[in-house]
Every structure is written in C-alpha cells, then in structure tokens.
Design brief:
This protein is α/β, with parallel strands linked by helices and 265 residues long. The protein has 8 helices and 9 strands.
C-alpha cells in the first residue's frame, strides 16, 4: 500500500543561519513520501539561495521553493498550502527541527485512530523537556479554548480541513491558535500525542526574543480569537467570557514570570 503524500510547509524569513539544519531534519525523516515547500517571506539575506542549493543536493525529495513579498508567516503558510498536493499537511518553522520519526509516528496515529483529523505532538526546547510517552489525548473544543495544545511545527492535519479554513493573512500573533480553534469548533476531531517529536529553537516559549517577547500583542491576538469565534456563533457567551478571563489571568502570570527572569539576569 502506497504511503500518503505529506506536504511539509516551511515559511522562512532571514533564516540563513538555521534553514539548513531545519531541512536536514525533514530530509532525515524515516517517512519518505514527502514534498517540501519552502516559502521565502521576503528575506534580505541568503535564505533563498541556500534553500535552492540545498534542494539541488537532495534530488530524492521533491522541493518547491517560492519567494513572496514579506507579509508574515500566516500568509507564507497559506501560500504554501495553495501550492501543496499532499493528502496531509505538516508545518515547520525555519529555526526549528523534527525528530527523525516525527512524520512516521503521526501517520501511524492517523491509521490507528481513523477519526483524528488534526494531530499535534509534544516538543522539547533544545534538549530539555523531552517526553517519550506515546499516549494520545483527544482535545475537545472546550479544552482547546483554555489551552493551546498545538505549537505549529508539531501539527499535521488532513488536507480537507484547509479547504474552508486558513491562517488569517497579515496576522502575526496567535493566528495559528485561531485556525486550530476554528477547526475544533466546527466539530473536527483533534488529538495530542504526548511524545516529544519536535525540537524548538533553544529559547523560552514566551518572554524571550522575537515575537514571544511581545506578550501584550500575543495576548491581544488570543483575545481577538475568542471575539471572532463568538461573533461567528462558534462559542457561547459563557465560553467567550470564561476563556477571555482565563487567558488574561495567564497573561498576568507570564508577565510576572518575565519580569522576574529579567531581574535575575
């Protein structure tokens, strides 16, 4: 039986220092039926040339390489989706990596649990927080409203989920969480594999550098998600108020943690 094609979508912006290691982790997958789609998001460094050179040296895996005007990772991922052909879509960021068995393990889960349509997995930050648990947890809409279980580089989903749902073009904060919420709130089955199969770049998941340093903008994005869902009648008023209040409470905790970290540097 032929393995289903998995389209791997990688947005890249000024990623010349990390993109080769990222691509190594894709080309080193034990699961072989892949297409790799790299969308250069208006980089001003050598990212595009590095990816082209890399693809020339890895003819065993089909590459699609595109360059677009800088518009953020959401737009770049959507562009990649539009040019993909796989039965499954998996996302990876240009400064992160996958364990060699990541796609193989997730496809095994799809086979074993046929109702699953979106599947995330655990991750480690650098070499820390590694979990070998193979337990699968079903993630309901109510669970997802209060905690985002899915970091984007850990997600693989069935292509049909993206026919009517996409990342919001131009958004740079919490746009991925909004997509997962849309999917869960329209009665699609989501699950989380507790096994660590993704290696995030070695920085805190919040309060560090880059986008994660902008805590308030991240919080505004999350609150906007709940407002959009409520206006679309995908969540009730009680769910909207409860999720928004809990989100703001978590923001306050993160703010305090970030301040304490800075004080102890």
């Amino acid at each position: 039986m032929k393995e289903p094609l998995v389209s791997v979508i990688i947005p890249a912006y000024n990623a010349s220092q990390t993109i080769a290691a990222c691509l190594d982790s894709v080309c080193g997958q034990t699961y072989r039926n892949l297409e790799v789609i790299v969308v250069d998001d208006g980089s001003t460094d050598e990212t595009f040339a590095i990816v082209q050179h890399y693809a020339e040296g890895h003819k065993n895996i089909p590459f699609k390489i595109y360059s677009i005007a800088n518009s953020g990772p959401a737009s770049a991922r959507n562009y990649g989706i539009e040019h993909s052909t796989g039965e499954y879509i998996a996302f990876l960021d240009s400064d992160d990596r996958w364990a060699s068995t990541k796609i193989e393990r997730q496809i095994e889960c799809f086979r074993k649990y046929s109702k699953i349509e979106l599947l995330g997995c655990n991750y480690s930050v650098g070499i820390r927080n590694h979990s070998k648990s193979k337990e699968i947890k079903m993630i309901s809409k109510k669970l997802l409203l209060f905690k985002n279980f899915f970091v984007t580089p850990a997600v693989i989903l069935k292509r049909n989920l993206l026919m009517n749902n996409r990342f919001q073009n131009g958004r740079r904060y919490s746009e991925d969480y909004y997509l997962w919420l849309q999917i869960a709130c329209t009665n699609h089955s989501c699950a989380f594999l507790k096994e660590s199969l993704v290696i995030l770049c070695d920085k805190p998941t919040y309060g560090g550098t880059g986008l994660s340093a902008k805590l308030w903008l991240m919080e505004k994005g999350e609150l906007e998600n709940y407002t959009l869902l409520y206006n679309q009648h995908l969540i009730s008023l009680v769910e909207y108020i409860s999720a928004s209040c809990f989100s703001f409470f978590k923001y306050c905790i993160r703010l305090v943690v970030t301040i304490v970290r800075k004080m102890h540097k």
